Amino acid sequence: MSINKNSIYALVIFALVQSAEAQDINVQFEANKKDYICGEPIILRTTIKNVSGQNIKSRNYAWGRNAGFTMYIAKDGNDFDNILSMQTITRLKVSIPPKGYKFFRDRHFLPGNLTTNQKAERLDMLIIPKSGDYGLKAVLKKRDGTTYASKPIQFKVLPLKDKQDSISRLGDQNFLINLGSSIYYAHYVEEVWGGFPPGKSFGLEKFEEIASVILKEHKDSVFREYVIYADIMIHCEPGMSVRELKKRRHGMGLAESFIKEYPNSWLLPEVYRKQFQAHVYEKNKDKAEEVRKKVLQVAPNASVLRFVKGMDLSKLNKAPQK
Questions:
Q1: What whole-number distance in Å separates Cα of residue 150 and Cα of residue 286?
Q2: Strands (DSSP E) along 85-216, which ranges?
Q3: CA pair distance 86, 90, nearest whole angstrom
Q4: Is the model more confident about 206 or about 246?
Q5: Alpha-carbon span 303 to 61, nearest angstrom
Q6: DSSP 8-state secondary structure symbol assigned to residue 33
Q7: 25-163, what's its fold?
Q8: Whose C-alpha in 17, 49, 166, 306 is 20 to 30 A from the C-alpha of 109?
Q9: What are phi and psi of 105, to 5 degrees?
Q10: Backbone torsions φ then ψ of 23, nearest 5 degrees
Q11: 161 and 24 Cβ atoms separated by less than 8 Å
């Protein structure tokens, strides 16, 4: 039996092309904790890196609205299923964003091109109102069908009775699931007043009442960080000046308090974005530049901060004289 050398060469080249293509993108996936109380927001960070050795056009990778980016979830050692599948959502009772949004925030787009070794980072929030052992992995799909998957991460969702948290004095497990859903919707809906859908979370008025109690009386609770964050998301619209913010119950002071109290929080990029928007609206160049420097230190790859890092501040006025 004769062996066709050209066929061997073709197979080798095909294998090398496949190997190179498989290394175009590296996907890293992390959760901010290992154990969560049932109803507690789970913060997930996905970082992709161009490892191809050349520039790539990001439009070939669906990261935003298109379902090219997704997550696969497994419970109690079972097989992984696409979290965007309605069967998975129904079976696991996984919260989904309002108004037909996908699981992720659709404004987190990749930069136009990814240069060699350049990274891009997105932040997602998930509520799982069902205790158990979970596995998650992030999957990025190229438009030609090639997929890039992260290594799976493992975490536990524990019932409230298994965790000591002072917030238990406020309500039962269902209460925490509603609270977590309110935080979740604030993360996605942001400036849409009254954006909490009925039956799936507390309404805006109820949430503000609960938030006020948690801020004053439950400083030890793991929910406190997320409640403050949700409060900031709800009250700090992009077109609101710092002066207007300070007239509010919280104002910019709440964002500043969050930064001091939670200097290592994964939610900091979102809080800095709110600060930056307010300073730009006030045309305060010095303050905007100050926030930009902090952003570059804590979240140099966050996709949501692209406009913060790229905005031309030269036309803004200097800080007003006192």
A1: 40
A2: 113-114, 119-126, 132-142, 147-149, 153-158
A3: 6
A4: 206
A5: 14
A6: -
A7: Immunoglobulin-like (2.60.40)
A8: 17
A9: -75, 120
A10: -105, 10
A11: no
Q: How many contiguous H segments (helices) and E segments (strands) does the chain have?
A: 10, 12
**Residue 192: per-residue pLDDT:** 47
**How far is residue 291's CA from residue 42's CA, in Å, rounded to a whole number?**
26
Domain ranges of the chain: 25-163
Of 140, 159, 188, 141, nearest to 28 by C-alpha is 140
The Cα–Cα gap between 222 and 174 comes to 16
CA atoms of 47 and 27, how far apart (whole Å): 6
At residue 199, the pLDDT reads: 52
What's the rounded mean pLDDT across residues 192-215? Answer: 70
pLDDT confidence tier of residue 65, bands split at 50, 70 and 90: low
Residue with token string 């207007």: 244
Mean pLDDT of 163-175: 91
**69-75 and 132-142: which strand pairing?**
antiparallel
248 — pLDDT class (breaks 50, 70, 90): low
First-to-last alpha carbon distance for the chain, in angstroms, is: 91
Q: Say if CB 300 and CB 258 are below 8 A apart.
A: no
Q: Sheet harboring 42-50: ordered strands across?
A: 25-31, 42-50, 119-126
Give the CA distances from residue 159 to residues 87, 89, 153, in Å, rounded to whole numbers and listed in that order.
24, 20, 20
Indicate the residue type of 152.
P
pTM of the entire predicted model? 0.81
Contact 275, 252 (CB under 8 A): yes
> Which segments of 135-223 does DSSP mark as H helices, in order?
173-189, 204-217
Express each pLDDT in 20-51 by its tens digit: 345 688 999 999 999 999 999 999 999 999 99
Rg of the Cα atoms in the chain? 22
